[in-house]
Fold this protein.
Amino acid sequence: MLTASPLKYLTLVAFGLTLAACSSPVDPDSPEGKRQAAFKQILNHSEPMVGMLTGRLSFDGERFAEHAAQLQALSDAPWEYFPSPGNSNQPNAARPKIWSDPEGFSAAVDAYKATVEHLLAVTVEGVDSADQVRGPMTEVQRACKSCHDAYRR
């Protein structure tokens, strides 16, 4: 069995604490803070939906539809909080391409909103099975991934 010496352990702990101290927390009232909060809310609804479709959570059509409605309600939330280049000194994961390709970014946002709208439309009359929503949810995930691949570090 391998054991670390106390010095190695303390060095690792000190290094970890140093890294934690170096990170600057995001001001929750800043555009970055509001954007991060909006994306967290989106994630709080999309993760259970994916969990239901992958079998990690038991499928509940009514609950899935509720999450889809919340996802749609949040679909406009984060986009207004992307700062103009140079207007913020807080860290963010946005690539400069967001500002050099505003039409492309806008098209990616519109594609995401359209897939969420379609998912909601499928759930409005009720959800009887995972198969009913698997395709539309996959499209939402693809829209998210596409935007992340192009515009997020």
Summary: The two ends are 39 Å apart (CA to CA). DSSP finds six helices and no strands in the chain. Helices lie at 6-22, 31-54, 61-73, 97-100, 102-123, 130-151. The chain has one domain: 28-82+94-151.
